[in-house]
Amino acid sequence: MASRYWVVSLPVQNSASSLWSRLQESISKHSFDTPLYRFNIPNLRVGTLDSLLALSDDLLKSNNFIEAVSLKIRRQIEDLEKISGVTSSSLTVDGVPVDSYLTRFVWDEARYPTMSPLRETVDGIHVQVAKIEDDLKVRIAEYNNVRSQLNAINRKQTGSLAVRDLSNLVKPQDIVTSEHLVTLLAVVPKYSQKDWLSSYETLTTYVVPRSSKKLHEDNEYALYTVTLFNRDADNFRTKARERSFQIRDFEYNSETQESRKQEQEKLMQDQDTLRSSLLQWCYTSYGEVFTSWMHFCAVRIFAESILRYGLPPSFLSVVLAPSVKSEKKVRSILEGLCDSPNSTFWKTEDEGGMGAFGGDVDAYPYVSFTINLT
Fold it and tell me: For residues 57 and 51, what is the distance between their CA atoms, to the nearest angstrom?
């Protein structure tokens, strides 16, 4: 599937079918590897010249907005599929691959009546896409909020012993708590463990001999218990700190432990549910946005062709997907088929022409704009 397509309209002098045949023949002869398709546009309501001119001022801006929303949803899908371990599949629109929907485009009369004013159709598409974008922001924020909470918990459980949550490292039997005795948790630099083991009993007077036990070790620190008399705890903290041993505040509570575990499990379930829901929503919404975008492109090619070639509407609209190396040749072919005298006025501004509609960077003697799918 190509990722970049040109939507082009050429002025018709005799018949659209003969121009189509000439284009097919030229592409086949000089750029045979360039896919070429008809882009069928119905007879839309033209309105007044003033309304078309006013509309043309907004077409590029609206197109950029719709394209940005489409790409934003597509990137979100790719990110969610990667996180979920889902095999990335080709996106579909109305049950067909994205590129097939574009190259076999059919106007949806029920959704966008051809007798509606073009401004009404364009504004309706813009409002619909803006609503989808707002919904996307809300859903992403909800999902990211749960992810942030879960990441915060995970950071506490995976950081160094100096800062991480110790609750899942300490068991009830590791803690001695009585009227007179208390167990403290000491975080000892990894390479100071011998110093700790040889000195903890004499840091203060009332330490229980041989009460220190190593519970855990990471790349920087080791976690030890030490049991001593309650009344000596504050003094022991001070003496330990002087020797670069950190005493962590910790109180074992089975209910708190269970509550934290349940909270984490719930957040994990919520994250999976929201991720799955968001992914399915993105699949559906991408199709809706892409459908709207292609109808918008049809309106755009119609309006710009009227302004370029005049009335009554007489033009051939096509979709091409040239490779980078074929672009210059295809541009030359398209230019050679522009027989309309109006087209001669649409040279680049450097050549004294009027330039392009809507602020397009490039200008040609025919209507042309690019659709980027990725």
Answer: 10
CB 349 within 8 A of CB 355: yes
Residue 367 parent element (H or E): strand 367-372
Strand-strand pairing, 4-11 and 367-372 = antiparallel
142: pLDDT strictly greater than 90: yes
282-322: per-residue pLDDT in tens? 999 999 999 999 999 999 999 999 999 988 889 999 999 99
What strands lie across the sheet with 213-217, from one edge to the other?
Answer: 213-217, 221-229, 181-189, 246-248
Contacts of 173 (CB under 8 A, 6+ apart): none
Amino acid identity at 182: V
The alpha carbon of 220 is separated from its chain's Cα centroid by a whole number of angstroms, namely 37
Predicted TM-score (pTM) of this structure: 0.77
Q: How many CB atoms lie within 10 A of CB 173?
A: 6
Q: Is the dihedral of CA 86, 87, 92, 94 positive or negative?
A: negative
Residue 19 has which token pair? 């121009």
DSSP 230-249: GGGHHHHHHHHHHTTPEEEP
CB–CB of 12/314 below 8 Å? Answer: yes
Neighbours of 113 (CB within 10 A): 12
Residue of 23, 24, 5, 34 lying closest to 103 (CA atoms): 5
Distance in angstroms (rounded) separating the CA atoms of residues 350 and 356:
12
What value does the mean pLDDT take over residues 181-206? 95
Question: What tens digit of pLDDT does each residue of 336-368 get?
Answer: 998 655 554 444 444 444 444 444 435 789 999
- The answer on pLDDT for 164 being more than 90 is no
